[in-house]
Amino acid sequence: MQEYWTRWENWMKQYAPKLLTILNSGVSHEVLESLEKLIGKAMPDDFKAFYVVHNGQQRVRTGLVDADQLLPVEDIIEKWHYWQDLLDAGTFQYNGEPIASEPDTGIRNNWWNPLWIPITSDGFGNYHCIDLDPAPEGTYGQIITLWHDDGHREIIAPSFREWIAQYLDAVERGDYIFVKKWGIVSKDTTLNYND
Question: How do the domains of the chain map onto residue ranges?
């Protein structure tokens, strides 16, 4: 997975050198093991290999993934606990029945599932997650969307590796640009460039 970081860092050097300063150093195997122990499942090998190089990004407004933050493992654990606390409190039930989402084929129709592991955050309660409990038509480790106020759940990529590869292909192709306030964003963004 080093090759993907090399590509991403090379792009940053050319178009957004300040982003290099918000990359965290690699995560330890012990921290990865603490995440796996918490969720009771192994994270995909590609995810672990990627995070050994850089443990996501620092907590700043500027995002690396279409204006979203690439969460470090410590924040992944924090976000997981947040959603788990909501689940335990019965937040995702109405009149004793689970609130269903509107998922793509291959995703379970939960509002949130403890095996949906958040890896990006927009800071407003919306995430990309690694799905470790797909529906029968899905793929273990697929990347899905999780919106706090919208029931649609979408498959973004069939694996962590393919998600990163697709995103970096788009970044290198020029589909994304750097905007100082927001970070790497779609060139067709509606975000105000001047803020």
Answer: 2-186
